[in-house]
Structure formats: C-alpha cells, structure tokens
Amino acid sequence: MPVKTLRALRSAAPGLSGRTAELLQRADAELVAAQFSSEPWEQFTHAHLAALRAGAAVLAERQPLSARRGPRTVWELLDRVAPEMSRWSAYFAAGAGLRAAVDAGRFDAVSAERAEQVLCHAEDFLDLVRAELESAAAELEAARAG
C-alpha cells in the first residue's frame, strides 16, 4: 500500500483575488479529504474535485467575465485560457465520466490504484497551478511597485 503524506492547508499568496484564494483553499481541503478517505471511490472523488477547483482558480484569475455562450466544462475553458495546461485538462476531463459513474452510485468503478493515481496527479496539478498563479501575482505586484 502506498505511503500517504498529509498535505497541510496553505494560505494564499498576496495579490491573488479573493475568489482565486478561496478556490485554492478549497482544493487543498479536498486533497486532505482524499488523503483521509478509506474508500477508493471517495478518494477519487475528492481528488478529482481538488483538480476541478484548481482549474477553476486559474479561470477565476485569467478569464475575463463575458457573456455565456452555453455550458462549458472547466477543462474546456482551461484549454483556451491556459493552453500550457492542456495535458492536465485532458487528463482530468478523461476522468469526468468515472466521477459521474461514482456520483450515480457505481462505487466499484474505481480501483484503489486509480484513486491513488488521481490523487497524486491532483496534488501535482494543484502545486503547478499555485506556483503559476503566485508567480504571476508577484510579478504584477512588483510591476505596480516599481
């Protein structure tokens, strides 16, 4: 069985919008919940939600508000707003069907290995998102200051 490391909740960096900071904190909370989950389906669901919140944080920071042109997933929007994250959006979009199956009560659809894999990827994705957003916020703050 893989060794789990506990992820601590982090505070947001200065310069991030309140909505972005909230989404990052919610993503951290989902990862903690995933780490404490004893069932693979539950671990998978929390990890997938953590990635979804991290993707939404990127959108909150980078996407201007505009008239809605129909429903879009976070992953579709992320491809447009942050094409450098397309590998991640494709990975998590591919897991949406499995999450829908779990949401529909098919708890046996998720293996322990798949749940652990999604948790590890969600942690990596959140770390990347946080680093990118905090770096952009620091650059903006430095530009304003000087």
What does this structure look like?
This protein has 146 residues and is mainly alpha-helical. It has a single domain, classed as Four Helix Bundle (Hemerythrin (Met), subunit A), CATH 1.20.120. It has helices at 18-36, 40-62, 74-81, 86-94, 96-103, 112-145. Helix 1 runs antiparallel to helix 2, helix 1 runs antiparallel to helix 6 and helix 2 packs across helix 5. The chain is globular, with a radius of gyration of 16 Å. InterPro entries: HEPN_SAV_6107.
Provide key terms for this protein.
Four Helix Bundle (Hemerythrin (Met), subunit A), disordered N terminus, mainly alpha, 146 residues, globular
Report the biggest beta sheet as strand number plus sense, adding barrel if it closes. none
Domains, number = 1
In the CATH classification, which architecture applies?
Answer: Up-down Bundle
Radius of gyration: 16 Å
Low-confidence stretches: 1-9
Percent of sequence in beta strands? under 5%
Percent in helix: 55-70%
Mean pLDDT: 87
Please give the CATH class.
Mainly Alpha
What is the number of E strands?
0
Structural class: mainly alpha
Globally, the shape reads globular
Order of helices and strands: HHHHHH
Number of helices: 6
CATH topology: Four Helix Bundle (Hemerythrin (Met), subunit A)
Distance, first to last CA:
51 Å
